[in-house]
Hints:
Number of domains: 4
Largest sheet: 7 strands, antiparallel
Number of strands: 27
Strand order of the largest sheet: 2-1-5-4-3-6-7
Structural class: alpha+beta
Low-confidence stretches: none
Strand content: 15-25%
Amino acid sequence: MNELGRLELIRESLVAVVNEMRANVIRSSYSSIIYEGHDFSCGLVTADGRLIAQGEADNPIHIFAVPYSTAEIVKTFADDIHKGDIFLHNDPYTGGTHLNDILMLFPVFHDNKLAMFTATRCHWGDVGGMTPGSLSGRVKEIYQEGMRIEPTRICERGRMNDAFLNLLINNMRISHERRGDFNTMLGTSRKAAEQIERLFKRFGGTAFLDAVEELIARSEAVARQRIAMIPDGSYQAEGYLDSDGHNPEPLLGRLKLTVDGDKLIADFSGSSPQTSGPTNVGPAMALNAVATVVKSYLDPETPVNHGSFNPIEIINPPGSFLNATLPAPCGGMAECRAIMAALMVSALGQALPEKLVGDLKGGANHVYMSGPQTGIVGDNAGIFLLYEYPAGGTGATAAADGNHVVRAFPEGDFNVVQAAEIAEMQCPVRIEHYGLRKDSAGDGEFRGGCGMRRDIRILGDGASLSVLGDHAIIPPFGVAGAHSGAKNRFTVIRDGEVIQPSPVPGKVGGFPLRKGDIVRLESSGGGGYGDPLARDPLRVERDVHLGYLGKERAKERYGVVFDDHGAVDKTATQAKRERNHANRLTLPISLAKEDEIDGTRRRITLSQATAQILGVSNGDLIELCHLSGAAALRGWVHIEDTGGDALHLGPLGISALAAAPGDTVELRALNARAS
């Protein structure tokens, strides 16, 4: 066998070990979020913490963060790591994600020297904290989110620290599930270590480890080659999260992406400070988000290892909501990671317009329902805990519509939502509706995918609802002149009346539910791509017939008119499209000396006449759409006598729109007002 064939065999052997780890976790875990939802990931890392291998189905939000955690454990324990040791970690400030994601590292030795670690990261359904499930939109400090595990040796030289393990698990709800999942991770790690030891014997330990280094070096070479094909330059992007759950002020995310030869520099300076609510994240997520987009866009074919990350430099000053420090809660790390990925999509899409894609649903959409579990004895007695994580529509591209209610490239092999059979078997609930959410897709020449609607009836007394989501105020953006997808929406239906479970949309903490209440989950659609008036009318007709789109929406957004038989009326459609185009509110851009930012909000100054035509008032949220291919730019209306009808944008705003002074943009109202 030649050297290249031998390298390929070793690489595939490593991936096979990880795939076996995944199978073991799925088959032996106790929590439905793991065996049914697949909210876990597995990998192999070097002795100094570099990623060696992961499975194709693993979630990058989990596994790309493992090198941070491993490096911290190696730093903490240095030369004091021995055969039989096992380490736990979930601390967001030192490389974790959020507290529910527990990482187990299992060291593997060769010739009495640390050679690598097996890594298993699983989302535990509850890790303590102030609400069941530990994730809440209304927390104010990380101590309310559960048990925080800094680098900890849970097992030393084969002897388990039962006292510490009991302390952890006994402070978590449904403790028998937590213990079962711990044992699943332990058994999986031990089996993986055995398989790696077999590979040492098969290939020779030194030669095997040398091959690992060669595989990493080759991946780096491919990554640098692909990056070198991107035009050099700096690309700006900005976007918003709704709020921190307490303060109505939105959170501003900024990115300056610099392409310099064969390396990328992603600078998140200028983003909002860390918050007292759960929409914060530790340092690991910035590289996580950037690397996910880079790998997906530039080199999706080859397996992942650390070489793909080496050409990436991250600048992310501590103290922002994208690199938070103690005591900021971090339950909403998926929401923060989502905005960083969206910023990367926007910035890299300016450099590579053919890669631009509409925005996604905005995060994990964590929904927890919990209450008394009656009629059950033994280990399962106590409370039920139903964790829903509804997927949404994906964004459209320059050549294709988005997909309906599926996971997207940053998310891995998650299920779309809990299976109805599992939810109804384990919890006193009934799934009364589950289907596509009509009119939720972002309209464009290519439309985004639809979101979903799911109705869950509560069958017992004493239950509660917690939600941690985003894009419930500021919707997923469209690109190249397309419209946004629908906002996420989480409501309770009580006696036929729609109730808002929180004064802050998307952020709910322990809202009391009554028997018979319906919890309604409506997820976002994906952002569209391109001018909706350029969409083939037959595609619009098909969407209407399939129930994705209503006739009124088709007429309003696409200018498509139907006759009495449900077919496209070509003459009326042409006339309607001409009227729609003529009625668009467009203005030219002029360059201002600086960007107008009021707190965290981009301020867009309009004349009274322009505001009246658009139907907006001071503090309303609007967006500017440019056919250049960039993402829509959001801002809040400020009305004054401007003395002209040009939009004055600073350098950052013009750059984020991929526009130039004198270009014309369309203005659209988004129906959200500053508090």
